[in-house]
Each structure stands twice: as C-alpha cells, then as structure tokens.
C-alpha cells in the first residue's frame, strides 16, 4: 500500500489569514469574511482551490462520488459499478486509499465511503446559516451540496429534502442556479462561496486520510498551513479545547515523536482540559484517533511503543497561535510534563528507552528555558538526569559532561533554590569529568559538592564522601582516600542508626564494599600485612552481609571481595566455592557483565593455585565474555 503524497498546488495563495487570527470563531460564511487560509475577494489562478489548483479536480471527484451514491440509492447495480471504477481512477483522490492488492471496485467503494463521510462532516461543521440574503450563500450551498452528494438527492428535489436544515426553503431552478451556477460549476468562487468550498475541501481530505499515514505536504507548505488553520478553527467552533491543547503541547515540544504513554502517565502538570484527557484512556485514544483521521497528527510504532507527532510542516504552527507570554507558560508546562513523564533514576537500564526517545524534547525545551530565563530549575533537573543517562547507557562521556555542566549553570542561574539538588548536580558533574579528564580533574567539583553538604549526616552525604574517597584513590592520594573512606563509613553507619531505613543500609553496604576494594588494591598480596588486611576486609564484608537479605543490594560485590580476601589468607577451597556461586549467579542474568568477567578471572586464578586443570577452560570463558563486552 503506497503512502499518500500531496499533489503540488502551485504558487501559495498570497492572502492567507495570519496564524495569529487562527483562534477566532467568526462565521466563515459571513459577508466579507475569508475562509481559513483564504482572503476576501475573488480567488485568482494561484489559489489552491481556484481554476489552476485543487478545486476543479475535487469538484470532478465529488460528482463521481455523487454518481455512486445516486446509483446505489436507485439500486442501479451496473451503473453503480461503472461509477465506482471511474471513481477509483479520479485524479482528485489519486494520493489516497489502497493502491495495490485491490480491485477497482474495492478501491472505488473505499473512496466513496470516505468521501461521503467527508461531506457529512462538512455539513456538521458548516458555520451557522443566516436565513435569507446572500450573506448565507456559502453555508446554504454547502449544506445542500452535502445532501446532494452524501444522500444522493437529485438537485431538482433538494428543495423538499433540505427543509428544516436551512431557511427559507428553496426550490426549482433558483436552487439549481444558486448551487451550480453561482458557486460550484463556475470554478471561480466568490468571497461569499469560498468559505464553504474550503470547508468541504478540508473535510473530504480529512476523511480520505482515515487509517493512512498523514501526508507531509512537502510540496506546498502553504497548503499544510491552510489545513492546520482550518482544523484549529474547527476545534474552536466545536469547543474541543482539550484537542487544541494537545496540539499546542506537541507543537511546543521538539519535532520528534512523543511516547503516547507519557500523555497518560504525566497528566498532572497539564492544563485542565488536557489533564482530563490524560486521566481517561478511552478519551485520549478517541482524541488521538480524531486528530489522526483529520490529518493533523502522525501516529507511529516502534515495536510495542506507540509514538505521536505533528506532521513536520505543521510542527511550528500551534506555537504561532500563542502570544509571547503564553509560549513561555507552555514551555514551563512542557518542562514539568517531561519531568513527571521521565523516570528520575537514569542509572536504571529500564529507563533508558524512554530517555532515548525524549532526548530531543529535553534539549529543545531546555534551550527555550535558557532563552526565556524561565523554568531554569526544571531544566537543570532534566539536564542532570540526561547526563547520567549518557554516562551509564552509551558511554558518551562528552555528551554526559556537556549535560552536567549545563545542569550546574542552569541551577546557578536560577539562584540555587535547593542546595540538596545542587550537591547532586555537582557530584554528577564530577563523575562526568572523571570519565573525560580523569579522577584528579574531578576533585574540584566533588569538593564543591562536599562544601554544599557540610554538616549533613545522611546516606546521601555518605555516598558523596565515598565517591570522593574513590577519586582520591584514583588520583594517587592513597592516605587521604583511606581517611575519606573512614569518614564515609562513619557517616553511613550513623545515618543508618538514626533511621534504620533500607536505603541507608544500602549506603553502608556500598561504602563497606568500596572500602574493601580500596584496602585489597593498595595492600601487598602476600605476607603478614596482606593477611591482616584480608582479615579486616572479611570483617567489613560480614557487616555488609548482615545489613541486607540474601541476594540483596551489593551481594555479588561482597562475594567477589570475600573470595579475594580468602585467597590471600590461603583459604583457596573456600574462595573457589564462593567464586563458583558468584559465576552461577551472574550467568543467570543471560548477558555479559564486568562482574561476570571479574568472577571468571578470579576463579581461573584460584583453580590455577589449586592445580585444577579446569582453570584453562574458565579462562577461555573469561576471554569470551571480555570479547562480548567489547562489542
């Protein structure tokens, strides 16, 4: 099935209505009023709906659709089939509908059904008809044309069929002349008729887009603009503020697909009408489907993930309907929306697919926040989490550092409203600096974080001290690192005594493990000192193991460190058993990890110490895991 593509409409119409006026709800059929995307006065040859544009083709296609309906009403099967085949070849509808794998009758019937739907929608969305006089001519003719095409009523019988739809009733040749002569067949619509023609044009195209990808109208941006303005006014006329707000939100975001789940999960910061959509899955799905059918939305899938976006040429248009204060307000709303939609812990791999999809939106909104000088605190938080995402997910250390630096600058520009958050941003900046420039360069931002946290006694501060100790060790300051580990452990133990929380218990376990690694790494492997350090390490690890349930946080690291301490004490069989349990646990994850590689290397060394011939086999497995990690 081919993707629809818009035929070129030639030169854009020079008198299009500015988008700033798109929110008005004035009657499109009133005297002197131009239709969406049109201007007062007779249309010229450059108008997409004028003699050289789409209107003659659309008019011919509509008359073919009417022939199908009329033959069907009169049960003239042979003539109906001929009309269906002719409709299938109509140039007006060449870009729409099934193109392959169907017969002309099937294609013609698909087109006829949706053209009828389009003219019925045009009738429903026509402006109020003014009884009598020429000021209502466009609306009157449009209602009559809908009856003529959708219901199949002959022109001569419309006088009776339309009774009750408009006033005063019209009949006979006067009616035929009003529709055929004055408006439709002339192909040179007057200003009074233009609004009706444009309404019908857009409604039919919206119906034809049903269940098919929205066209991007790359051949004619003016046509896409006129289409959007028409839909924007139509939503205002119908009171569909929630759908207008949805278009604004998507327009404020970057021109990239947005996860539909965000709309259902992060509705809290959104304005009332849009919040109501977010709290009701059915209403949200209905709104998305309506906008998709009308060609102002693109819905795509990536596996099981549904994504939604505006067509590229329409992306900037909703924001142009807002004045400057409203644009700033909506940028703040969108920042808070993403802040809720995206998970805060970007260390967690489960959050990475969401952040990958949202990254263009984050960067776009943060740039606008910098330009407006508003929403800086929310922008800083998003950039900090993005920095961790880059550091943990794809090892893009330069991007991680750029995001971390930006987070700190934004928060400082906002006046550092929350010191606790500021310290976190500085710690993540230090981690990003370490990855790019080494541990020595990372000491400065880490010491700034410690200065902000001075006087705190909690698990977070213990973790900051622990990271500082690791940086000192990496920079070659072994004694200072040991002292910092002592401070970190004392702080973590005190915080856990005060709260007894699992989170603070986890902080103690983390410091005990990291301190154990430091002691093992900076002590001799053999001799009395090595054994004394190994016994100290086992005591630390026993404490770590006592703080959590079996298999809890840090269990695997405890096992690895314990095996190394046992080996240094000459307890090789115990070390072997510990490493075999660790390898078995890591293999259950069904993916290569650094911990599995380290466990295999340690096991191979212990087996070699024991003269166990299996050590070569285990070493080969370690090389296999290393190769997988490199890829």
Automatic annotation (TrEMBL):
Chain residue ranges for the region called Disordered: 1-54
Positions with biased composition (Polar residues): 1-11
InterPro entries to which the protein is assigned, alphabetical: TPR-like_helical_dom_sf (IPR011990)
Protein source organism: Streptomyces griseoaurantiacus
Domain of life of the native organism: Bacteria
Protein's recorded name: Tetratricopeptide repeat protein
């Amino acid at each position: 099935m081919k993707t629809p593509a818009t035929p070129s409409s030639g030169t854009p119409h020079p008198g299009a209505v500015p988008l700033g006026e798109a929110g008005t709800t004035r009657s499109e059929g009133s005297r002197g009023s131009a239709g969406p995307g049109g201007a007062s006065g007779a249309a010229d040859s450059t108008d997409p709906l004028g003699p050289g544009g789409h209107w003659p083709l659309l008019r011919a296609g509509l008359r073919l659709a009417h022939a199908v309906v009329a033959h069907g009403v009169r049960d003239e099967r042979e003539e109906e089939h001929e009309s269906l085949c002719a409709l299938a070849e109509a140039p007006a509808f060449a870009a729409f509908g099934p193109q392959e794998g169907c017969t002309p009758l099937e294609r013609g019937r698909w087109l006829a059904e949706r053209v009828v739907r389009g003219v019925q929608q045009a009738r429903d969305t026509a402006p109020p008809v003014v009884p009598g006089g020429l000021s209502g001519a466009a609306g009157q003719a449009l209602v009559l044309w809908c009856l003529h095409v959708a219901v199949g009523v002959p022109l001569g019988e419309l006088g009776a069929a339309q009774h009750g739809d408009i006033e005063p009733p019209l009949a006979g040749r006067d009616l035929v002349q009003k529709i055929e002569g004055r408006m439709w067949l002339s192909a040179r619509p007057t200003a009074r008729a233009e609004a009706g023609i444009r309404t019908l044009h857009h409604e039919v195209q919206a119906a034809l887009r049903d269940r098919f990808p929205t066209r991007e109208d790359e051949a004619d941006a003016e046509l896409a603009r006129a289409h959007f303005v028409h839909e924007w006014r139509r939503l205002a006329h119908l009171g569909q503020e929630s759908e207008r707000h949805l278009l604004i939100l998507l327009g404020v975001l970057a021109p990239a697909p947005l996860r539909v789940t965000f709309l259902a999960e992060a509705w809290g910061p959104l304005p009332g009408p849009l919040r109501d959509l977010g709290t009701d899955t059915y209403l949200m799905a209905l709104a998305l489907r309506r906008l998709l059918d009308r060609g102002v939305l693109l819905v795509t899938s990536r596996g099981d993930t549904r994504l939604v976006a505006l067509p590229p040429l329409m992306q900037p248009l909703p924001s142009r309907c807002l004045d400057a204060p409203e644009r700033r307000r909506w940028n703040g709303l969108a920042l808070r929306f993403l802040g809720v939609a995206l998970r805060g812990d970007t260390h967690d791999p489960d959050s990475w697919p969401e952040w990958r999809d949202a990254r263009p939106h984050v960067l776009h909104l943060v740039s606008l926040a910098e330009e407006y000088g508003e929403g800086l605190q929310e922008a800083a938080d998003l950039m900090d989490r993005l920095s961790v995402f880059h550091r943990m997910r794809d090892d893009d250390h330069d991007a991680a550092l750029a995001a971390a630096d930006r987070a700190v600058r934004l928060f400082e520009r906002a006046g550092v409203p929350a010191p606790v958050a500021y310290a976190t941003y500085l710690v993540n900046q230090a981690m990003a600096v370490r990855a790019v420039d080494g541990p020595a360069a990372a000491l400065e931002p880490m010491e700034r974080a410690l200065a902000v946290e001075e006087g705190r006694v909690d698990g977070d501060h213990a973790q900051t001290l622990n990271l500082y100790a690791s940086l000192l060790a990496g920079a070659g300051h072994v004694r200072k690192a040991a002292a910092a580990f002592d401070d970190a452990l004392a702080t973590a133990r005190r915080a856990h005594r005060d709260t007894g929380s699992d989170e603070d218990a986890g902080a103690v376990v983390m410091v005990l493990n990291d301190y154990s690694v430091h002691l093992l790494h900076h002590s001799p492997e053999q001799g009395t000192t090595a054994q004394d350090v190994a016994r100290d390490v086992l005591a630390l690890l026993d404490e770590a193991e006592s703080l959590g349930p079996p298999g809890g946080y840090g269990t695997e690291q405890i096992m690895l460190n314990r095996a190394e301490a046992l080996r240094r004490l000459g307890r090789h069989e115990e070390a072997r058993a510990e490493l075999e349990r660790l390898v078995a646990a890591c293999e259950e994850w069904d993916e290569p990890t650094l911990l599995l590689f380290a466990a295999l290397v340690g096991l191979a060394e212990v087996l070699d110490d024991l003269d166990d011939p299996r050590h070569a086999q285990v070493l080969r497995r370690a090389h296999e895991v290393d190769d997988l990690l490199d890829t």
